[in-house]
Write a structure and sequence with these properties.
The complex is a heterodimer of chains A (159) and B (700).
Chain A (H helix, E strand, L loop, with lengths): L6 E6 L2 E6 L7 H8 L18 E4 L2 E4 L12 E3 L5 E2 L2 E2 L1 H8 L9 H14 L5 H8 L9 H15 L1
Parallel strand pairs in A: 1-5
Antiparallel strand pairs in A: 1-2, 3-4, 3-5, 6-7
Helix pairs in contact in A: 2-5, 3-4
Chain B lengths: L4 H5 L3 H4 E4 L2 E5 L9 H13 L6 E4 L17 H28 L6 E4 L2 E4 L2 E6 H4 L9 H4 L20 H5 L14 E6 L7 E4 L2 H5 L4 E7 L2 E6 L2 H14 L1 E3 L8 H7 L5 E6 L9 E8 L11 E7 L2 E6 L4 H12 L6 E5 L11 H13 L6 E4 L2 H7 L6 E9 L5 E10 L52 E8 L15 H18 L4 H6 L5 H13 L1 H5 L6 E9 L6 E10 L3 E11 L6 H21 L4 E2 L2 E2 L17 E7 L14 H16 L10 H10 L1
Parallel strand pairs in B: 2-3, 7-17, 15-16, 19-20, 23-26
Antiparallel strand pairs in B: 1-2, 4-5, 5-6, 7-10, 8-11, 9-10, 12-20, 13-18, 14-15, 14-17, 18-19, 21-22, 22-23, 24-25
Helix pairs in contact in B: 3-4, 14-19, 18-19
The chains are: A alpha+beta (159), B alpha+beta (700).
Chain lengths: 159, 700
């Protein structure tokens, strides 16, 4: 059994997780997907350049493909799974569905996480702030206009 | 009405649908690539059967149960599968009601259906579809019973119902990447750097000793490995690729596009009418080019395979489950009947990408590791380097005009690397790893795609305009080491750019409005209508004062000259770079099943074409694709997205026309023409980067 010294503790979506220290060098993305089964975190590039793997760490949006499990010791982590609770979707997800704002949908969970982090850290975020956040993400199907329309509407309703 | 092509192959009603437990189950051989085609097909079935949308389930391509519809490609899902499903559903309704009429002892004409409940006149009967389904002969030929509804009787087709798969895509785990099986292991093949490469040395013992590696395997130039985690598989594969010594072929040109442009391979006739040589005046010439492009799905290709009890099951996001099955059977020496290929969604698919290749990778690994599911997910670098590229192309057009500035002759020559190299085409599996095995299954010489199947390099190279003398030829350039196949719109992206930027050049020479110049060269009423609608709807956009460095441009085409008509008007601002600010598009898609779906597809086509045209270019280092990351291959960022409006022209009494690839060519041309209006120069070589603008201006 692992003693206190050789486990890594962190909080994921409100639950405390302890990872054996052998996972210290596992990329966070693969730990979340393959070990914890949190598959809504997506692998896109492995180089922090597409945004598909975005999660929230202590309130900040981060890419998970270029972080190791050891780097998030003691952190509070949120994955896209937190956007659904008791069958109810977060308002960001509701807006995206209402606007039919994807084609393939592969990029969207990362986008939703960055927007969640933005709105929680800056409830008065404007369209420019939203645009800057979105520029950390790539979409290949060309659903940008719908994604922006959905999220702008969310800003308007919050204002 | 002629019999839908899919029903000739698969005429049984029961092949397309069945009824169980209050539900209608529709089976299509098409697959959902993130474009909403399954939703539209479901709407068609619900309409013909008079059942509610939520009473219908639809499943896509799956060799265990679906009709064989080949590939989901060419914007043909609704045109072909949709028509087949409409007929099959209509036939099912007839068959079900025939049984009901007999059991109720009333004439068929008195029966009506609402939500699957059968009514005699307006009186609810004791029967629903599901009460009589067991007595229907589902082996009947759909074409003998089908009598599809007239357009005014349709209630669901034509409505923007929400996509059936979309909630799961926004907030779920719908992808093949997300599938897990008990005891699943993770594999990768160490793909050689380029076609024709030889593996000189790789230390298999050291590879087998890498952390987490369970098994290593070599066949020909291919090395495979299975590991206990994704991370271990990726790390070992990366180590192997970097430490292996490769012998690379020496047939790479210094500059791929120059090689395509200067190729002397055979010139093939595509189409001729009249005789271009009868024109004896001076010809205006125009030459444009496009570099090799990447599909660039956001999620790299993935597949899972299990070899168990002499059966191979494969979960894949490929576009053609049956052709993939057949190609893998060839490579593995298995019977087709021993393989199931089950479509499971991947990230956006825009043509023949790495999906098929990675399925063979998983299959090869799985047969050597029986009883365990093997998941393979390519790296981003694999996706750029190993997946088929969209071909580089050079299109030349010469035109002769008479004294009224009317085009009398047009001569088009398209030089292109081959499109259309999907699994099984040209008689070879066309799966990347297969070319490196011992014995190898090398790709056959590509025939590109003939014009009667939509054309490949020559797609939309035949002008839609009414020109008395036309000659179109293509030259497929095989003698290059790069692996190419079909990507959205195929040759139409560049050919429409060629023809439509030339139309603007000619209009400008004639001091004529670009709309009017085109209109007087057109005879097709629907084309005229789309262009006039675009002209009138964009009067305000085009009427704005044109500031220094700003301009608007038009592009128009009828996709493949058989599918949707699409006009795009784009406004640009050109300073150091081109920025598209506004786009207005008009599309005549014939009968439109799901208007919001068509708008979504058209917006997507516009933005993807904007990205190709302004930003994208694959780089080579000798025979190897040097592009490995998104930093090497910029695509459109969110902040560069223009305002987009799409206007639909709905023709409920016309056949549905493929819409998904209609906008790409016109959008590229609209940008080219807007740049011409903004800075007075046609930029002929894509992508229209700041460097390309400077170069075009200097050469002007």
């Amino acid at each position: 059994m692992n003693s206190e010294a050789n486990v890594i503790r962190f909080l994921v979506n409100g639950e405390t997780l302890t990872a054996p220290s052998e996972h210290a060098d596992t990329p966070l993305l693969q730990y979340l997907r393959d070990v914890q089964g949190l598959s809504r975190v997506r692998f896109g590039c492995g180089a922090a350049s597409c945004g598909a793997c975005t999660v929230i760490c202590d309130g900040q949006a981060i890419t998970s493909c270029d972080k190791l499990v050891s780097e998030i010791v003691g952190s509070k982590l949120e994955t896209p799974e937190c956007l659904e609770s008791n069958g109810e979707f977060h308002p960001i997800i509701q807006k995206l569905i209402a606007h039919q704002a994807v084609q393939c949908g592969y990029c969207i969970s990362g986008i939703a996480m960055r927007v969640k982090a933005l709105l929680e850290s800056n409830p008065n975020a404007d369209e420019d702030a939203l645009d800057a956040a979105l520029d950390q993400h790539l979409c290949r199907c060309g659903t940008h206009v719908r994604i922006k329309r959905a999220l702008y509407e969310l800003l308007t309703e919050k204002a | 009405m002629s019999i839908p092509v899919q029903l000739v192959e698969t005429p049984r009603i029961g092949a397309w649908l069945s009824l169980q437990a209050g539900r209608v189950h529709v089976r299509t051989g098409r697959v959902e690539l993130g474009q909403g085609n399954l939703t539209a097909l479901l709407q068609i079935a619900a309409d013909e059967l008079d059942v509610d949308v939520d009473q219908v389930r639809i499943s896509g391509g799956d060799t265990r149960q679906s009709p064989n519809e080949g590939f989901t490609s060419g914007s043909l899902s609704i045109t072909q599968s949709g028509t087949a499903i409409r007929w099959a559903a209509s036939a099912a309704r007839q068959a079900l009601l025939s049984v009901a009429a007999r059991r109720l002892a009333v004439s068929l004409e008195r029966l009506n259906v609402l939500s699957g409940q059968i009514y005699v006149d307006s009186e609810k009967s004791a029967l629903s579809y599901w009460d009589v389904a067991g007595e229907v002969d589902w082996e009947q030929d759909a074409t003998e019973l089908a009598a599809p509804k007239l357009s005014d009787a349709r209630k669901v087709a034509g409505k923007s119902i929400p996509r059936i798969d979309l909630v799961d895509r926004i907030a779920g785990e719908p992808f093949v990447h997300d599938l897990t099986f008990p005891g699943m292991v993770f594999g990768r093949l160490v793909h050689p750097p380029c076609m024709g490469a030889k593996l000189l040395s790789l230390d298999m013992n050291r590879l087998g000793g890498r952390p987490g590696v369970l098994k290593v395997w070599r066949n020909g130039e291919i090395t495979g490995l299975i590991a206990e985690s994704t991370h271990a598989a990726n790390a070992a594969c990366e180590w192997a690729y970097r430490t292996a010594e490769w012998d690379l072929p020496e047939n790479a040109p210094t500059h791929a596009l120059d090689a395509i442009s200067q190729s002397q391979e055979d010139l093939l006739p595509v189409q001729a009418q009249g005789d271009v040589s009868t024109f004896d005046g001076a010809m205006v010439t125009h030459r444009v080019s496009r570099p090799y492009l990447s599909h660039g799905s956001i999620g790299p290709s993935a597949a899972i395979a299990i070899w168990e009890n002499d059966r191979l099951r494969i979960w894949s996001h490929a576009q053609g489950p049956y052709p993939l099955r057949d190609a893998i059977a060839t490579v593995l020496g298995l019977s087709k009947d021993a393989i199931d290929v089950i479509h499971h969604p991947g990230a956006g698919c825009y043509g023949h990408n790495g999906a098929d290749d990675v399925a063979l990778d998983a299959a090869l690994l799985a047969v050597g590791y029986p009883g365990r599911a093997v998941k393979v997910v390519w790296s981003r670098a694999d996706e750029f380097r190993c997946a088929p590229l969209a071909p580089g192309m050079v299109t030349r057009v010469s035109v002769g005009l008479d004294s009224t500035h009317t085009i009398q002759a047009m001569d088009v020559i398209v030089n292109s690397a081959p499109h259309g190299n999907r699994p099984g085409r040209n008689g070879s599996p066309n799966l990347r790893a297969a070319a490196f095995l011992n014995p190898p299954f090398p790709p056959s010489k590509s025939n590109d795609i003939p014009l009667n199947a939509g054309g490949g390099a020559d797609r939309n190279a035949v002008p839609i305009y009414d020109i008395p003398n036309v000659r179109v030829q293509k030259r497929i350039v095989h003698k290059l080491p790069y692996r190419t196949s079909s990507m959205r719109s195929l040759g139409a992206h560049l050919n429409v750019y060629a023809l439509e930027t030339l139309m603007d050049k000619l209009a400008d020479d004639a001091s004529e409005d670009p709309f009017e110049f085109r209109l007087r060269h057109l005879r097709d009423d629907r084309a005229l209508n789309v262009l006039r609608t675009a002209r009138d709807s964009t009067a305000e956009l085009r009427g704005r004062p044109v500031a220094e460095g700003c301009g608007w441009g038009l592009g128009f085409a009828k996709y493949k000259n058989t599918a949707a008509y699409c006009a795009v008007v784009a406004r640009v601002e050109v300073q150091e770079r081109v920025r598209v600010t506004d786009v207005y598009s008009v599309i005549d898609g014939g009968e439109i099943i799901n208007p919001d779906g068509v708008i979504n597809q058209t917006e997507g086509g516009i933005l993807q074409a904007l990205s190709w045209t302004l930003h994208e270019e694959i780089k080579f280092a000798g025979p190897v694709v040097a592009t490995e990351t998104w930093l090497d291959y910029p695509i459109i960022p969110f902040s560069d997205v223009p305002k987009i409006e799409v206007e639909l022209i709905h023709q409920p009494d016309c056949p549905p026309l493929g819409c998904a690839e209609a906008a790409q060519g016109p959008m590229a041309a609209a940008i080219g023409n807007a740049v011409f209006q903004a800075i007075g120069v046609h930029v002929c070589d894509m992508p229209l980067t700041p460097d390309a603008l400077v170069s075009a201006a200097l050469n002007h």
